[in-house]
Amino acid sequence: MTTKQVLIIDDEPDIRELLELTLGRMNLETRSAANLSEGRHLLNEFKFDLCLTDMRLPDGNGMDMVRHIQENFPQLPVAVITAYGNIETAVLALKAGAFDFVSKPVDINDLRNIVRSALKVKQPEEELAQAAPGDEATSRMLGDSAAIHKVRDMIGKLARGQAPVYISGESGTGKELAARLIHELGPRADSPFVPVNCGAIPEQLVESEFFGHKKGSFTGAVQDKEGLFTAADGGTLFLDEVGDLPIPMQVKLLRAIQEKSIRPVGTQAEVKVDVRIVSATHKDLAQLVDEGKFRQDLYYRLNVIELPMPSLKQRPEDIELLAHSINTRLSEGMGMSPPTITDDALAVLKQYAFPGNVRELENILERALTLCDGEHITADDLQLRSTGATASGAELAAIGPGPDDDEGLDDYLARIERAAIEEALEKTSQNKTAAAKLLGITFRALRYKLEKLGIE
Q1: Are the CB atoms for 369 and 327 separated by under 8 Å?
Q2: Taking the C-alpha atoms of 235, 51, 80 and 261 in order, what is their torsion angle to the nearest 10 degrees?
Q3: Among 23, 239, 255, which residue's Cα sits nearest to residue 119?
Q4: Neighbours of 37 (CB within 10 A)
Q5: DSSP codes joined into one string, 206-227
Q6: Taking the model in full, what pTM does it have?
Q7: Reading across the β-sheet that carries 78-82, which strands appear in turn?
Q8: Which candidate, 337, 384, 327, 328, places its Cα nearest to that of 356?
Q9: DSSP per position, 146-183
Q10: Under 8 Å CB-to-CB from 202, ≥6 apart: which residues?
Q11: Is residue 328 packed enough to be buried (19+ CB in 10 Å), middle (13-18) or exposed (0-12)?
Q12: So what's the pLDDT on residue 251?
């Protein structure tokens, strides 16, 4: 097995010696340069697996080396060494394409973590192209449109680094799936991916959920609890609906990200954590900053690189491919052969606005599978006339009150569906066969719905 090679660029002999000794103990070969010119020369002479460069050099700036590597050696991860507390410079380096950063004085454990991660970098562009069609994540990232090709290319690049990523886009566009792919195609793939809906945690428990707590630290803390940061250590923490975090927690989150350490509730000791942060929200985070509802410094720290997710109406040419893929996956989950989606059904889908995006397409097809004859999904099975964007007030009133202020389309539809099933079961004295008949669906479809909704 070939020994990995690391290029070190720093004008301080003591720092170079520290890095050489540390990396040598990790069984890595090193070559050192005292300035940018020597570094460029070594890059042309030898093949490296990682570059570590200081930001302040005699003949220029480490940012120049980051850009040089991005332009000439795009597959080479480069990590920058910054002065203590100079987070702004580190963020600029990440935006320019740096893999990660380490602050002076150099923490040996942080350095080792960065080096290990960088040397595990894969070729995500190739993996994304070769991913199995049946894989849930990649099947939701299907499409031939220019918009989704751009997303896949961006995911491939983002997976190679450690920079915080902010995923923007409407509800249902696949933000969590994009976050999972960034994780799965990157060097942290073997470590946990921990998703958290920031808006679903009660405000008084947010700090405990994120950082954990010690037994007895507050009323109800009957035992030690591991926080989300600790659970994601070595992996990726996905902060969904990050715009819903209360301001006091935003301050503590910023500190945890910058210091790469946390303090569990009820303790004084700092705990080191190695976590990559990916965040998302369907809200306009910049507008929340303007309104004073989100801290500007945290916004800039999270939004190092933005990944915009296109709405389904921005890529209508992908609807047919997505419909067939989702139909196959859902049918297999229900233990049935995929029915054919008729031409008239596809025509209706292509004309529909999809305010709920890909997630709504999945909901529509899931409902159609329970209503169809088992062989064909027709336009009537889609029921878009009564549940789509053009539904009348009378039609909506017939299926019950609309979504609550804090209730999304998925939860609203699940609530309506649950109510209909429970009413049918009550009318038939819990006879599932009779209830399925009353609902106009197959027994198998009803059984699938009961399991999905958790109805006993």
Answers
A1: yes
A2: 30
A3: 23
A4: 13
A5: HHHHHH-B-TTSSTT--S-B--
A6: 0.73
A7: 29-33, 5-9, 50-54, 78-82, 100-103
A8: 384
A9: HHHHHHHHHHHHHTTS---EEEE--TTS-HHHHHHHHH
A10: none
A11: middle
A12: 93
Residue 190 in tokens: 């073997």
Distance CA 448, CA 421 (A): 12
Task: Give the helix/strand (H/E) hosting 192.
Answer: none
- What DSSP character marks residue 440? T
Longest dimension (CA), the chain: 83
Cα angle for residues 424, 366, 242 (degrees, 5° grid): 105
d(CA 265, CA 438): 53
Query: Using the 8-state DSSP alphabet, how is residue 318 labeled?
Result: G
Q: Which pLDDT tens digit goes with each residue over 365-405?
A: 998 988 888 889 999 889 885 443 333 334 334 445 556 65
How many other β-carbons are positioned within 10 Å of the β-carbon of residue 45? Answer: 8
The percentage of residues in the chain with a pLDDT greater than 90, rounded to a whole number, is: 50
Other C-beta atoms closer than 10 Å to the C-beta of 214 total 15
Phi, psi of 397 (to 5 degrees): -65, -30
Long-range CB contacts (< 8 A, 24+ apart) of 255-259?
256/210, 256/211, 256/229, 257/164, 257/301, 257/302, 258/87, 258/301
